[in-house]
Structure formats: C-alpha cells, structure tokens
Specification:
- By secondary structure, this protein is of the alpha/beta class.
- The relative contact order is 0.11.
- It has 9 helices and 6 strands, in the order αβαβααααβαααβββ.
- Strands 1-2-3 form a 3-stranded parallel beta sheet.
- It has a single domain, classed as Metal-dependent hydrolases (TIM Barrel), CATH 3.20.20.140.
Length: 199
C-alpha cells in the first residue's frame, strides 16, 4: 500500500528520490521487513528508501517462520536483496523497542545468527561489515537529507564519530556484540568519554 501511495504521489507530480530535475522528497518505508520478491525492484523504480532495523531479526527469528510461513520468510529482513536491487538502505536500532546499542544490529546484519549462535536465518541475506556500517552511517544520513553534513568522515563535514574498544571490521563476528564505546564526538566536541585505565 505504501509503494502504491508513493507511485500515486509521483504520478501526481511528486518525484522519487532518483529524480534529479525536480524536488527530492525521499520517500521511505520504515520497518521494511517482509516483502514479496517483486517489491524489491519496485522500491528501486520508485526511489524508495528501505529503513530497517537489523535487531528485529534477532528478536523475531524464533517465531517468524511460524507466523508468516517459510516462503515469505525467504524475503524477510532481506538486506542483501535490497542492496542487490540498488535500493538505498538505512539502518537504525529502533530504540526503545530494541536495545540502543547498534552493535547487536551489526552482528545481526553480518551473521543472521541469534546471540547464542544456535540458530540462523537465511544467511544468503547477510551483509559485509562495511555494508552494515554504511547503512548505519551514510545510508542514515541520506535518508534524512544530511549526506552533505554527516555520514562520512571528510573535510568540511561534521566530525561525528565514536572511538571503540575494538576494530569491528576485523573482529570475530560474535565479539562485535561486546563492543564498548570509549568516546563519542558530535560536531567535533567530545560528549562522552570512558577511557579505561587498563584492559
């Protein structure tokens, strides 16, 4: 229904995110979690942003097959299919429904396994850690029209970043869950710091 509404809006003169010569409205669907196979290309055609929360897979995987059926589950939490269809992907945590930490979402995105590593869900939909980081940073910035100010570390952009206690791009997947933020910088100013005396 949302895709149909965006299509109707586009046909009425409201352009999609991929239209360069008219106003950019950046339509997006929040919690774009359960799709039919044909809808991925429709997202692309309409320039709709897929805003999703990887945390939900970890919470839902115990009941999702039972609730929506194994065929529909193949295209649920389908982050790889979105990227393969060139759909803009934006990640968030969905706090306070899910834990605030993004590291649980990183873990979900790259493993599609529960935290005890006893169950997994359609691993063909996994992302690389770099793709997951991009969805949380530059993807989220694009979704809020802020890609000129944040989402990347470049000269002239806001210095928004965190210092972590480990390199999540090279850590073992399960170790990402235990990541701690040592410092948070917003607009070039430290707003949080927790430097341990020893490790």
């Amino acid at each position: 229904m949302a895709l149909q509404a965006f299509n109707a809006a586009s046909n009425a003169g409201l352009p999609s995110a991929i239209t360069s010569n008219r106003k950019d409205y950046r339509f997006r669907i929040e919690h774009a979690q359960v799709l039919s196979p044909s809808q991925f290309s429709r997202f692309n055609e309409l320039g709709v942003i897929a805003s999703v929360q990887p945390n939900h897979l970890l919470t839902d995987m115990n009941w999702v097959d039972y609730r929506i059926g194994p065929e529909r589950t193949k295209h649920a939490y389908a982050w790889r299919e979105f990227l393969d269809a060139n759909v803009p992907l934006c990640f968030g945590t969905d706090y306070p429904v899910e834990p605030l930490t993004p590291f649980r979402g990183f873990y979900a995105a790259v493993t599609r396994r529960n935290e005890s590593e006893t169950k997994e869900n359609h691993t063909e939909q996994k992302l690389t850690i770099d793709e997951a980081i991009a969805a949380y940073t530059s993807g989220a910035a694009f979704a809020e029209f802020a890609e000129g100010d944040k989402g990347l570390l470049l000269p002239g952009m806001l210095a928004d970043f965190v210092v972590l206690d480990r390199d999540i791009t090279s850590a073992q997947s399960h170790d990402v869950l235990g990541t701690h933020v040592l410092r948070t910088v917003v607009g070039g100013k430290t707003v949080y710091e927790d430097i341990p005396t020893s490790r």
